[in-house]
Amino acid sequence: MTMALMSIDLFKLSSLFGPIVIIVVSQAIFIVLFSIFIAFKVLGKNLDAAIIISGLIGHGLGATPNALANMTSVSQIYGYSEKAFLVVPLVAAFLLDVFTMPCIILFINLLA
Is residue 98 in a domain? Predict the structure, then answer.
């Protein structure tokens, strides 16, 4: 993967920079609004929910290491949550792969 990414000619992709920026900004806005107005309320509006939401934002904008870094930062300020540090890595690292692969295959077959 590293070799493939390093060999990409960015000048050929320059026409896609505008749409990519729009997609990334839209994703960031959506994940923050969804986290604040829906997920935080559903999870109970407490410390555990806040730390889980920080993990959700980190994972939504990156990957599991981003989620853990966000959760660690919030935990250093407001306190540690054992529930959050158990749930988020399990869901992000294991269950997400179990559920997303069939969905990806389904959409590839439907849209092909």
Answer: yes
